[in-house]
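Listing 4. Sequential folding, example run.
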Amino acid sequence: MASMPTRDPVKDALLTPQNAAVLIIDYQPLQVSSVGSMDKHDLVENITTVAKAAKLYGMPVVFTTVNLKSGKNAPMIHQLQDVFPDLEAFDRTSINAWEDAD
């Protein structure tokens, strides 16, 4: 019986823990409280589950915050800090995360 070829987890066209990262943008109390399209508890539960899955699979995770260092905004929600207590967020002063150089 022929064995199945082993896929390269880095070069594979499908997402794997070795060729992908999880980017969690601006999960801060003010931003979470401003969401009106879904239940806030569900929103927090969903992103916390995603963060836990990323940690379980050893995926790289990047957090961003907006206006934390300027004092205009609070830190990332505690549920995410509990999953990654030592992960420092990239803090921005611009609203659009995609336009920030960092």
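-- end of first protein; second protein begins --
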Amino acid sequence: MIKTERLVLRPWKIDDAEALAKIGNNLNIARNMRDRFPHPYLTANALLFIKEFEKENPQKVFGIFLNDEPIGSCGVFQEADIYRKNAEIGYWIGEPFWNKGYATEAVTAIIKYGFSTFEIERIYAAVFHYNLSSKKVVEKLGFTFEATHHNRVFKNREYYDELIYSVWKKDWK
């Protein structure tokens, strides 16, 4: 469990599935996620997701909770082989909680956790070019823009650019 000023990040539990589905079942969230996060997002999807990560050690995925209610999810995923010193972060916040600083607070916590838990030197975020809110979060946290991967994302029958931002452990505040 990770505590921040306003939030608690903790592993998802089977009992959270219905609440996770309720907050995650939103087209505006799904459009900014990989296809494995479908719309509609049902309790069955939430159960599969929770079961996939519940036995991880160390934990990679956390629910983001405000006053014991889930408002989103985040994770840090160490890569393998020659990329093993890198990890990707992912995060989403339920739409009723947008523009309140919760994503920035949760991502700050997951970065600290990632650098202290995994043997990594670099954390990166892959952001769809149209996701201005996500770009704002990583830029606010001091990530460096590295690259535009043109037409790398194929989602909803269209191609989109993917933007890569990163922060190095030595530069993390």
